[in-house]
């Protein structure tokens, strides 16, 4: 199973080769992998920023514990969850679904009302946490796709989300920086690539009932 081989190959890259860039074609494939990610109700309550600008990334590095991956990687993916999901967002999803599948919106109105009711039961904080959780599913697709393409990546929570929101103007867009992933190619100087993976034994991790 090649997927397992790819997962054994990948690791959270600590040092990137700053002069080696991911091709535009591979970036498009990574975008498509994220786009195809599953999400609750299919709503995809997030947006993904792809940052190449070095001056902007230097500013972000300062609020990312000064971690070199932020500036040295080829591209920086910033996953941003929506602060909350409005009824208009659900209406937009229903319209998209109808157009994509050649259906009348009326046929989907019950599903739309159901989503509005279920999400309406959540507090603003619960909606925020729910949408934030969805970004991690999308991030997993990015990591898996990167490994298949021989591209290195490093999922990172070590940053000041509030400062990211300020620098990137996310609050005005109803967004929040959830998790970031630099992608590129590992440096030969990164000793982490030679370390054995540390994972719980299968018999400890899984339990049948």
UniProtKB/TrEMBL annotation:
<keyword id="KW-0520">NAD</keyword>
<dbReference type="InterPro" id="IPR033878">
    <property type="entry name" value="NfsB-like"/>
</dbReference>
<dbReference type="InterPro" id="IPR050627">
    <property type="entry name" value="Nitroreductase/BluB"/>
</dbReference>
<protein>
    <submittedName>
        <fullName>NAD(P)H-dependent oxidoreductase</fullName>
    </submittedName>
</protein>
<keyword id="KW-0288">FMN</keyword>
<dbReference type="InterPro" id="IPR000415">
    <property type="entry name" value="Nitroreductase-like"/>
</dbReference>
<comment type="similarity">
    <text>Belongs to the nitroreductase family.</text>
</comment>
<keyword id="KW-0560">Oxidoreductase</keyword>
<keyword id="KW-0521">NADP</keyword>
<keyword id="KW-0285">Flavoprotein</keyword>
<dbReference type="Pfam" id="PF00881">
    <property type="entry name" value="Nitroreductase"/>
</dbReference>
<feature type="domain" description="Nitroreductase">
    <location>
        <begin position="9"/>
        <end position="185"/>
    </location>
</feature>
<dbReference type="InterPro" id="IPR029479">
    <property type="entry name" value="Nitroreductase"/>
</dbReference>
